[in-house]
Amino acid sequence: MKLRGQAVLLVLLIGYVALGHSSLERQVERQETHKILNKQSPCPRDEYYVEQHCCKLCNEGTYAKADCDVNHGNPECKGCTEGVSYMDKKNGYHECLNCLICDDVLGQNLTEACTVFKNTVCKCKENYFCADTETSPSDGCTKCQECTKWV
């Protein structure tokens, strides 16, 4: 019985180590396949890390269509599509961000159109309000209701 209990414990321990190892491998794999765009990056502030080397950041309004091949090299940067996508900061992303679409059905009005440099700005129509920020009610607006008289 003692030997059987030790065997079960050994199997559990091996499984735990194997799961921990595969989890660690996945974490390392994610770090290698995704660019490190934060403080942990070994690159200067104006560069991003990819595949064991640093690439220069693409400018606002563009994204990295292809990463650089050499350390401290320039990626192939491509422009975002006016009115469709934008990028509001220097970056190493592989695609631009999609523009917000103001929705009349959700009680929104367009305040500022999307450009390749900044997202759309929507605001709530008259007699509507939003729980989100007034400058960009991304979840829609709620129609105001008339107050009922106190009885």
Automatic annotation (TrEMBL):
GO biological process: activation-induced cell death of T cells; extrinsic apoptotic signaling pathway in absence of ligand; immune response; motor neuron apoptotic process; necroptotic signaling pathway; negative regulation of apoptotic process; regulation of stress-activated MAPK cascade
TNFR-Cys repeats: 79-122
Pfam family, one: TNFR_c6
Keywords recorded for this protein, A-Z: Signal
PROSITE patterns: TNFR_NGFR_1 (PS00652), TNFR_NGFR_2 (PS50050)
Gene Ontology CC terms, in alphabetical order: CD95 death-inducing signaling complex; external side of plasma membrane; membrane raft
Molecular functions (GO terms): tumor necrosis factor receptor activity
Segment forming the signal sequence: 1-22
Stretches of the chain forming a coiled coil according to its record: none
Domain TNFR-Cys: 79-122
Protein name: TNFR-Cys domain-containing protein
Organism expressing this protein natively: Engystomops pustulosus (Tungara frog)
